[in-house]
Amino acid sequence: MPAVLIVEDSQVVIKVLRFIAQRTLLTFDVVFATNATEACRAIASRNDWFAAIVDLNLPDAPNGEMVDFTLENKIPTVVLTGSIGNDKRDALHCQGIVDYVQKEGLYSYQYAVNLINRLYRNRNIKVMVAEDSSVTRSFIVSLLRRHQFQIVEAENGQQALDMILADDSIDILLTDYNMPEMDGFSLIHELRHQHEKTELVIIGLSSADDKYLSAKFIKNGADDFLYKPFSHEEFFCRINHAVEAMERNKELHRMAYTDALTNIHNRRYFIEQARKLLPKAENTQKPLSLAILDIDYFKQVNDEYGHDIGDLVLVSFASSLAKAFSRFVLARTGGEEFCILFSGLTVERAAQLLDAVREQIENSSVEIASGALSFTFSCGVAELPADSLESLMKEADRRLYHAKDSGRNCVVYQG
């Protein structure tokens, strides 16, 4: 696993940092050093350093020499210090540190350690920088790289729009106001027709001397605004605030659309996706099939073995469906009922795939304390054309009941 170096000469402080790190930095091999000599020896011993937390004033490196050394070795560095003046703070940021933290109590040490996890998570966050000035754009990109973000660049609003619409993995947009071809306002206006605030965070940038500009940006759909020139600290504070807000929103979104027991999507997600995909399939005249699945005799499982075992059956069934139908829209829509939307498949092809999974589940089992528990499922499948999503689901449900009336453990897709 990647390594994190923590260098601190105070035994009290290093004890606190060790306590926090053991509970927080679970994905790292954390190495501690109490002076610069130990730290340099540790750095030379391996080449997988992810980051470092370094005391600015050590007995054998009293003037920040250890910070210089970690930066020279291209190790992202968080600086710990008892006190710091504005000139030294600015100098450290210009050197390229991630951040500095004053030793002011437990919260400060938690903040420093949590910054490492923040850097690690940032590797999966993609930021678009839309700025026509190459100098300003390069400066912003260099700041973002310190914090380990993925970065894409655009020279104007139109280029940024095209790139974002073609790449749904972009999480954050930093956009200038004055740009050729399309300005920041127009870019945000176009994007908000495509992306909700939970999907794309937008931060406006401008050096324009207009005290109302920030309000205009936010009213047009931006989440935040920064006047140029900005300090390193302000920039990082705003970015980190935006990222954390985005992560909270995404987690709330995930919880709202995920079934808590099986960890697959829920009925709300299925209905929303179906309402988007049905008209698209009708307009393009591509096939679309909808299946409703129901575990056979599930009430008997609960009655005989208890709800805990019933839950194990549901989780096992959902896992099997998720593996088999990962490219389709799958959801647990209630109790022992599941739905799958097969975009691009005829009812015959969907039924063929479902029947193969039916055979696999019939020949498998769930391990419980008393032995192996087997189960089966029944399924009804319908396809477009249909008057509405409701009528399509009603037809699939009718065929599901036909499957149950026919003895269960089968897939019905006709009549």
From TrEMBL:
Domain GGDEF: 286-415
Enzyme class: transferase
Residue stretches making up the Response regulatory domain: 3-118, 126-243
Classification via InterPro entries: CheY-like_superfamily, Diguanylate_Cyclase, GGDEF_dom, Nucleotide_cyclase, Rev_trsase/Diguanyl_cyclase, Sig_transdc_resp-reg_receiver
Pfam families reported in the protein's UniProt record: GGDEF, Response_reg
Protein name, UniProt field: diguanylate cyclase
Catalytic activity: 2 GTP = 3',3'-c-di-GMP + 2 diphosphate
Keywords carried by this UniProt record: Phosphoprotein
Modified residues annotated as 4-aspartylphosphate in this record: D55, D176
Highest taxon above the source species: Bacteria
PROSITE patterns hit by this protein: GGDEF, RESPONSE_REGULATORY
Keyword Mitochondrion: no
E.C. number(s) listed in UniProt: 2.7.7.65
PANTHER family: DIGUANYLATE CYCLASE DGCM-RELATED, REGULATORY COMPONENTS OF SENSORY TRANSDUCTION SYSTEM
Entry keyword annotation includes Phosphoprotein: yes
